[in-house]
Amino acid sequence: MNDIRSGDAMLSDWREAAGRFERAVRGAVVGQDRAIRLLTIALFARGHVLLEGDVGVGKTTLLRAVARALGGAYERIEGTVDMMPSDLIYHTYLADDGRPRVEPGPVLRQSEDLSIFFFNEINRARPQVHSLLLRLMAERSLTAFNREYRFPNLQVFADRNRVEREETFELPAAARDRFLMEIGLEAPRDAEARRALVFDPRFHDTDALIAGIDGGVLDHAAMAGIGAAIQHGIQASPAIEAYVVGLWEALVRPHEAGIRLPGIDMSALIQGGASPRGVAFLVRAARVRAWLEGRDWLVPEDIRAIFPEVMAHRVFLEPIYEMRRSTIVPELCRAVFDTVPAP
Amino acid sequence: MRRLAPLLFLLCSSLTAQSQVRTVEVRTPRPFGYFLGDLVRAQVDIVVEPGFALQAASLPQPGAITYWLDLRTVAVTQASEGGGSRVRLDLTYQNFYAALDARALEIPGFTVTFVSDTDKGATTAKAQVPPWSFNISPLREVQPPAREDPRTYLRPDGRVASLDTQPLVVGSAGFMAMALLAFAGLAWDRTWWPFAKRGGRAFAACLRRLRALAGRGEDEAAYETALLALHRALDETDGRRVLADDLPAFLTRNPSYARERAGLAAFLDASRHSFFGPGPAGAMRRLPLADIVALTRKLTAIERES
């Protein structure tokens, strides 16, 4: 299965580094191997990630651990109801000498070194803030103080609470589409991991836990270059291209693909979504997964491994089904993979 | 003398013709007692010189002869007899004459031609079958006495013995049971409704397709078609798409195939290389078409057992 060309020694070295990175994060966050693998894929695919889950399952800890292991400048902000877009960009206060000052806000503070911008509880912020994020995420640039700032290494990590609906704002579709993945996080099912989380004092002091992670595993400045090298180095055969297009077609028009789910009118289920950008993201992430598995060509399993996280949040259901989204969309994804032939 | 010569020739030729047909004899069972619609049979025996054969075209044709008489059949038998050749015609006429009184009717005669082919030329001889007659009687009185109820003129219907339907009922029930049994067998083979749970013979169908492919030689297109055929059979067996990484889950769901684990793994690996990786050429070296056919044959055997 190891068919990587010897000329691509850089890619193999980076694959080992990615393995070390995963092990480092796994040391701090137990029982979340799948989420860690997906975050690793997102890092090398240079995509933004939205983490979703219940209270206290370790969303913030996981993102902090990833940011720490990746290294580079890191900023973090908490979403609140009264937050305004300008709060991200600048900060005004009265200095000791009694004169007003304007300082760069969290986004601009680290200037163009910023590699991870961590938006905690993103659904508590207002839509104005979300729309500021649109450009920051899509173009990695921002206009402020009469000049344009560029963030070549920026990746936005956000998390949101799935349960709470009071004083929250649903992310607009445009903002959700710019996230590479939406990863659902659940408390670990494994009894051993649960015991450790509850009784091991190591996991109670989050700051010490994060500080224990080796910060120099990956060279964050080289991530953009290696990400591009992966995208060019992993081949996609005509068969896999046809497969992805088939999946896309079946996801958008499940009725015509012959997919039937009990109790659902398939012809009136999907309102839209599954954008070309989303499918391009899908292939980006799948290429990274193939690279992590040590192949230089894509297989359907690569697509399947990341499909729900990359595609599920891009599908928009008719309003009547939107309330049951959390059960319908995973079912639909599973049915799509059970229906579309590969090869 | 000169005037006599043609007369003499005529006499001689008529004598020779007479002598070539020795006898013509018409035999009928009885010349009386016929009614409307009865069949009238006649047997005509003609004895001719040896070497003469009947000319079939000269026989009377079956069909209407007059408005009251049809010729139904003509049968010819030929045998040699006493230095001559005897031709027997069995004629069956049908009489349609509705007689009002007893009277004689005449069946017209006809001529039959015989031919003798020799190397000096053909000689023909005609046998004249004479007309013969038979007596016909009316079916009922011409003027019956008046009756009050005209229905009494009609004779009652003849009584018909009632048939025993038991053997027919038993026979049809037997055939019905056989048909149902055959249909059940067909439904089992095709996995129609009551046997739907049994699952189709996916691998058997795949094996048939592979055998057809095997004759096409070892080209890459045929190889990929073979891979696809086996993929579809696996998908059908599992009821979902089976990817290479799904093999353990597939064997958990279908444990009877576990003894072909190695073969299936080799197949999925070859398929992956062929479709998504370096291409079919390398995959054909890893797993030739013959091995795929052999694997499918083993899978078909397992499928038949389950």
UniProtKB/TrEMBL annotation, chain A:
<dbReference type="InterPro" id="IPR003593">
    <property type="entry name" value="AAA+_ATPase"/>
</dbReference>
<dbReference type="Pfam" id="PF07726">
    <property type="entry name" value="AAA_3"/>
</dbReference>
<protein>
    <recommendedName>
        <fullName>AAA+ ATPase domain-containing protein</fullName>
    </recommendedName>
</protein>
<dbReference type="InterPro" id="IPR001270">
    <property type="entry name" value="ClpA/B"/>
</dbReference>
<dbReference type="InterPro" id="IPR027417">
    <property type="entry name" value="P-loop_NTPase"/>
</dbReference>
<dbReference type="GO" id="GO:0005524">
    <property type="term" value="F:ATP binding"/>
</dbReference>
<dbReference type="Pfam" id="PF17863">
    <property type="entry name" value="AAA_lid_2"/>
</dbReference>
<dbReference type="InterPro" id="IPR041628">
    <property type="entry name" value="ChlI/MoxR_AAA_lid"/>
</dbReference>
<feature type="domain" description="AAA+ ATPase">
    <location>
        <begin position="45"/>
        <end position="189"/>
    </location>
</feature>
<dbReference type="InterPro" id="IPR050764">
    <property type="entry name" value="CbbQ/NirQ/NorQ/GpvN"/>
</dbReference>
<dbReference type="InterPro" id="IPR011703">
    <property type="entry name" value="ATPase_AAA-3"/>
</dbReference>
<dbReference type="GO" id="GO:0016887">
    <property type="term" value="F:ATP hydrolysis activity"/>
</dbReference>
TrEMBL record, chain B:
<feature type="signal peptide">
    <location>
        <begin position="1"/>
        <end position="19"/>
    </location>
</feature>
<keyword id="KW-0732">Signal</keyword>
<protein>
    <recommendedName>
        <fullName>Nonribosomal peptide synthetase MxaA</fullName>
    </recommendedName>
</protein>
